[in-house]
Records
---
Amino acid sequence: MPALDAIAAEKTAQLEAKSRLRRLRTVVVEEGITVSRDGSRLLSFSGNDYLGLANHSAIKQAMQDALSCYGAGAGASRLVTGNHPLYDPLESALAAYKGTEAALVFGSGYLANIGVIPALVGREDLVVADKLVHACILDGIKLSGAKLLRFKHNDAADAERLLQAHRLAHRHALLITETVFSMDGDLSPLVDLRRIADKHDAWLMTDDAHGIGRPQPVKVDVQMGTLSKALGSYGGYIAGSQALIDYIVSTTRSFIFSTGLPPATIAAATAALNVLSQEPERADKALGNARRFASLLGLPEAQSTIVPLVLGEEEKALAAAQSLEEAGFLVAAIRPPTVPEGTSRLRFAFSALHTERDIERLVEVIRRENLIP
Ligand SMILES: *Cc1c(COP(=O)(O)O)cnc(C)c1O
């Protein structure tokens, strides 16, 4: 066996021994929240299509129209010949949705974060980030070469302590958090973070990948988001001032050196924003479902469409997900390194498409299987 394969096999065995091996399992979304896996139909509580837009008829129609008109792919980066006319209406709609002067669409949310952070800060600068920010934010900070300090999760006083002690030794400072935390479902203290950023001359950046279209309570200098979750399509974006966006276009490597989105994908995202503005009740329905679930189980009130049930060790989370699957529910078991050691969990994600009865059935099974620690 060649050396590389031997090393790969050994490392894979080590991961397996720690219940950390990840395997791809095929899942077909039949419609909205009903999926099939290994031949059985399951009700999904694990997707990020919170508003039920990935299968929306008007959005699929917009995609089909764009596909027949313009074909499958962009063929080049946006700065070469890939800047399709469909981008303009999407970016205007995104800027309106975020309340900013401008917005810029990237190939994915991951590409937006790993590109924009190094465009804004470098070796002489400081980044102060929440302990639980997403992996692609950490990757962006690493690529930037800036000094990274992490504050205790959602603890604005700790963020301030770090800025107070370190800000003056650096040229620029960037304070980064998520609006809704992807694995915990809690919200960041944006009002406090804005005040601290102003006091210590730092820029504020948020990752709104799990937001469902609610306005942020404060002005945010750099707002990152994705088209791939609540908007049901694919791609990422940055929203901010026109000056910021103009600068990003010319300096962000993941924007400059990567192909534009397929036209149908751009059209889908524009159509999704349109549906969202006409049917804002979708966001209330999704949040209401999460709240109902948490209250039936006696958990703290849900702050977003994501509700974690922290179980501890990897094996516990895997076994719990397995028993829910046997009862007909697809729920993700989340393990390190996605979450910290000892906090493996079930992550329940609620959609506007779930009914009250769906939630009650799920709760009955959780009780029956004694999954609440
Ligand atoms: C999913 C996610 C991303 C990446 O977005 P994609 O469009 O899927 O690449 C970034 N940040 C957070 C918090 C996410 O959950």
---
Amino acid sequence: MKLQMVDLVTQYGRFKDEILAEIGRVLDTATFINGPQVAELARWTEGYLGCKRAIPCGSGTDALQLALMALGVGPGDEVITTPFTFVATAETIAILGATPVYVDIDPVTFNLDPALIPAAITSRTRAIIPVHLYGQPADLDPIFAIADAHGIPVIEDNAQALGADYKGKKIGALGRVGCISFFPSKNLGAYGDGGMVVTDDEALAEQIAVIANHGSKVRYHHDLVGVNSRLDTMQAAVLKVKAPHLDGFNARRREAARAYTERLADVPGITTPAEAPYATHVFHQYTLRSTQRDRLARHLTTAGIPHMIYYPVPLHLQPAFRRDGIGPGSFPETERAAAEVISLPMHPELTTEQIDRIVHPIRAFATAEVGS
Ligand SMILES: *Cc1c(COP(=O)(O)O)cnc(C)c1O
């Protein structure tokens, strides 16, 4: 089998009959918008995360924007988050006229370093967004303690870690509100875009649902300016089939990660990912650090091994998000991570034989480096 970062074709083969039957039901009934599968997936999400409300929406990016809008974030406001994340986290803050205020990461977990948050809080701080990067929960308790002390809501960006535990509890709805992405390559992926907002706050849930539906509770009556963000029924149909298997997918990811780490832990110049004592990591990505990252990447390209850099340029150094006084050196751990990380193929279908093929050229590279 050809090596790939993510193997959605093999996975489709496992669920093909069920998925086609469920999509068939959508077509047969022409329930393209808000069909029954959409509500079923919302109820599944509530049960899975143990939260009061799940509001379906168009994407993980929309979920973040809806959460920020419902919390009233707007021009002049500040939102604290990590510069080492996918652009959507900061983009949704900026699109509302607010300013992303970055805090550097913990070099071991790649997630927000809670100790650095207090210094970033001002009278304009309206929310804190920890990102559970690569599938590992951020250290939430100290973040909640700081947020509670200042009366600031926490929005979990849970696009990459659906199913992960923090101190024995499923993350996602532990903060005031959580945001899920069903992008195809995420741990629970649709066959297009999709997202979900989750919360225990009924009033906030109501507000999110209204904003997602053009600011309307009663059709053609608009109480506020909203957006159009829906989970497509076809996507909900696909997700409905895959959702009961999420824990199984995550278990397979964890097994693959263990197999990688067994084979790479002793390799000089390579740091394998660490699982924090408070977390169950669901390995959306298996991400190494290498002090020779760019040369290792070229070596893997030559050897035909897929790999990706998540993310090569921190958000504070992106032209779109540049701010006066914040440049290279502002967030040293983030910048070092951006220069050192490299992610290997990771998906539930990965076999031990494939892992051996991926690891071999990495070990060979390290041996050649030591010898040279
Ligand atoms: C994928 C992702 C998003 C956005 O989700 P989409 O469904 O692609 O819009 C947001 N934040 C993080 C950390 C992500 O990985």
